[in-house]
């Protein structure tokens, strides 16, 4: 995640740097450093921030697209996204069975998910 994206999502949440730091469980200095590009945004902070953005209260929940529908998935029953009925959060869950991320975890999975229609349609 770039510093510009981090700042954009903070503003989308309508949070100050201080209030976002509390939500993310990091120091104010860390948030300032992410926004200035002095520090790279760690994966666990990126995922928390995206989770907050995706799950903020909105009137329009029609943007949510289930991964199994978009990807025409054949292995729903074994996938954690299906098990927890969290098809719009497949990018957040480890162990999902999407053919594009199967076997991928952590940074490698997020690199793929950042460009996936499931996540991008929510942001």
UniProtKB/TrEMBL annotation:
Domain called HTH cro/C1-type: residue spans: 9-37
InterPro entries: Cro/C1-type_HTH, Lambda_DNA-bd_dom_sf
UniProt superkingdom: Bacteria
A GO term, aspect molecular function: DNA binding
Name this protein carries in UniProt: HTH cro/C1-type domain-containing protein
């Amino acid at each position: 995640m770039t510093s510009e994206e981090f700042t954009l999502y903070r503003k989308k949440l309508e949070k100050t740097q201080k209030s976002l730091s509390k939500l993310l469980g990091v120091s104010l200095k860390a948030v300032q450093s992410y926004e200035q590009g002095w520090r790279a945004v760690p994966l666990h902070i990126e995922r928390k921030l995206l989770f907050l953005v995706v799950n903020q209260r909105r009137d329009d929940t029609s943007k949510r697209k289930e991964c199994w529908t978009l990807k025409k998935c054949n292995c729903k029953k074994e996938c954690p996204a299906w098990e927890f009925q969290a098809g719009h959060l497949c990018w957040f869950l480890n162990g999902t069975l999407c053919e594009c991320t199967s076997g991928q975890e952590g940074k490698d999975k997020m690199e793929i998910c950042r460009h996936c229609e499931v996540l991008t349609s929510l942001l």
